[in-house]
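Can't paste images in this forum, so I'm doing it all in text. The chain is below; anyone willing to post the predicted structure tokens underneath?
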Amino acid sequence: MLDRVQLKYEAKAITKNAAVSAYLFTLLYLAIGLVISGLLLLFMKVNPLDVCGQALGKIVTDQYNLGEILVKATPLIFTSLAFAFTYNANLFNIGAQGQFAMGAIIAVALSLGLQDSLPTWLLLGTVLSLIAASFIPNKPEITNGLICMVFFLAGLAAECGRHGTALAKDVLKAIDYETLALLAGLFLVIRGIERAGIIDDLSHIITGMGGGNLFLTYTIIVWASVLISAFVDNIPYTATMLPVVGGVAAALGVDQTVLCFGLLVGATLGGNLTPVGASANIAACGILRREGYEVSAGQFMRIGVPFTLTAVLTGYVLCWLFYAGLGV
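Text version of the structure:
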């Protein structure tokens, strides 16, 4: 009986210590993020205290800003709860980002359906078809593109049937062909680089520079991934690097988690460095150019570089502390 009571108190003590540690880690992450952001603002000759004061002041005094924060934060909070629930059950919910995206898609579909049901059915049909196609083994690489084009042409034909062929001309004129051509050329170049083995050679050079030191290898992987992803699409690079990172981790005799997360931090955020670092950047610049707002590479990078450095540096430090430095 005494042993049971003792075990019960020990379990409560462990739970309490774990909760305290979680709060301390949260405060530590916030402090690191604020310090890094402050240093970058000082580097840009901006007073961090003024920035924080203005930001907090606008949140408190402006009802619109407060409402926008609640609107943007609510879906993120629910997504975090979806992850936290499974995490507390000793499971990992790796689909949280997809669930967030699906929630946004369904919400838009329902709102459109209140006005016109055709866009809703086209959107749902496209999403469900893409999901179904993902389960087909050895499918042609153009499958997803064909699905999107089929639903686009079906919707265009249906609208032309209801409103006449003049609508088709307006739709075709509104397409940003320059951005599409730029994306197509970029994908061709990336595919050529991938097939030539250049990405594979770069990945082996990066990991070979670590010299058997885990922290040095982690640092090289993160920052080299940032530079490469600023000009090369991150999907083929990450796909190529994942088995290499696993081999390096095995050679070092360590768990590959910290190296994989370092790869994700660098490859994912590095695309924000330049206008050609991600397809979304190219598309956004194309839309702005079509609306009469020309964005040069220098203008983009004046915002992209400090943003990318802040995000990568924060992720770089936190991932190392969480997965390696503190042994969590």
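The mean pLDDT is 77. Residues 107 and 254 are 43 Å apart (CA to CA).
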